[in-house]
Each structure stands twice: as structure tokens, then as C-alpha cells.
């Protein structure tokens, strides 16, 4: 049974933490690259580039540290990015990477790419959803969750299913910045807390 999305609450943490000033800068640059890619009729190509860029950085956290390090020269950072992405992404994206490095904005490259995807999704009325369950969900279960999310938020929904045995049972569903946790692990954690506070 899928719990109605109206019971969502905002999660307390995100996968990548930035302060508000970094997010503001990232949002501004993301809007600029969205506008430019639309002018160049390369929006879909740049979106795919940003997805590839984010996957690469997530798989190599040390790269985020290198790009953020003010001691490392622009030339070295540009050479690293060229080696990783030259010939694999569009000219618009390469120009964007160079611009960010030359403006000493390497520390917000990841956040800007992430914000680009967020703004692209808003533009295209797409909602990203992730469901994490203790065991793999059946296609019927995924279809049910997808239908529930679509009925609530409207537009297109992209649902990613992940498995985390630590949940024991149930699932955790995240839609945008909203989350619902029906996992047994979460319920056990709440029960432990209640015992500790003498509620139970």
C-alpha cells in the first residue's frame, strides 16, 4: 500500500551540502547556461552533459576537492576537465567548465550542474523521485508508486529504484525535497527513542 504523498516532510540532510551563498551563485550560473543552451538549441545535449558530469564527480569525490582547492592552478584544473570531458560533451558545456574555472568558481561547479538539472526539470515539468526499499520492488509495486506520485504532482515523473537491506522492510520515497519513510528500520528507531524517553 502506498502512503499518500500529502504526508511528506522535508528531509534534514542533502547528499551535497552547500551554504546559501553558494546555492545562490550556482542557481545564477545554472540559469545562464540554461538560457545559453536554449539560444544555441543545445538544451538536451547540455542536460545530458550535466548528468554525465554529475555522475563522474559522484564517482570521484576527490575530483570535487581538486576543483574546489584554491591552491591548485587554473591550468591544472582545466587540463583535468579537458582530459575527462573533451570530445565527450558539447562545446557549450566545455566553455561553461572553462568559464567557471577561470572565474575561480570551481568550488560551485558541482552545485551549478546539479542546479541546472533542477531548473531543466522545472522547465520541462519533470519530477525526480527515488524509492529505496529493503528488497527489490516488483514492477507492479514500482508502477503503483509511480502512478501515485504522478497523480499527486502531475507532469512527467522519473522514478529511480534502489535497494538498501539496512531498511529491513518498507521503503523510503523521496520526491524533490519531500520524503516519506515507511521502513521498518525507521519505525524501530522511533521505538528506541520512545523507550529512551520513557514514552513506551
Structure write-up:
There is one protein chain. By secondary structure, the chain is α+β, with helices and mostly antiparallel strands. Mean pLDDT is about 85; it is low at about 1-15. The protein is globular, with a radius of gyration of 20 Å. β3 (about 170-175) and β4 (about 180) form a beta hairpin. α4 runs antiparallel to α5. It has a 4-stranded mixed β-sheet. The chain is built from 8 helices and 4 strands. It folds into 2 domains: about 20-120, Orthogonal Bundle (Peroxidase, domain 1), CATH 1.10.520; about 125-195. It has helices at about 20-40, 45-60, 60-70, 75-85, 90-100, 110-125, 140-155, 185-195, and strands spanning about 125-135, 155-165, 170-175, 180.
Task: Give structural attributes.
2 domains, 4 strands, 200 residues, Peroxidase, domain 1, 8 helices, single chain
Summarize the helices and strands and which ones pair or pack.
Elements: H1 20-39, H2 43-59, H3 61-68, H4 74-85, H5 91-102, H6 109-124, E1 126-133, H7 139-153, E2 156-163, E3 171-175, E4 178-181, H8 184-196
Parallel strand pairs: 1-2
Antiparallel strand pairs: 1-3, 3-4
Quick overview:
This protein has 200 residues and is of the alpha+beta class. It is 56% helix and 12% strand. The protein contains eight helices and four strands.
Helix percentage range: 55-70%
Average pLDDT, rounded to a whole number, is 85
Uncertain residue ranges: 1-17
Q: What structural class is derived from the secondary structure elements?
A: alpha+beta
The top-level CATH class of the largest domain is Mainly Alpha
Distance between the termini: 27 Å
CATH topology of the largest domain: Peroxidase, domain 1
Full CATH superfamily name of the largest domain: N-terminal domain of the delta subunit of the F1F0-ATP synthase
Tally of structural domains: 2
Give the name of the CATH architecture of the largest domain.
Orthogonal Bundle
Biggest beta sheet summary:
4 strands, mixed
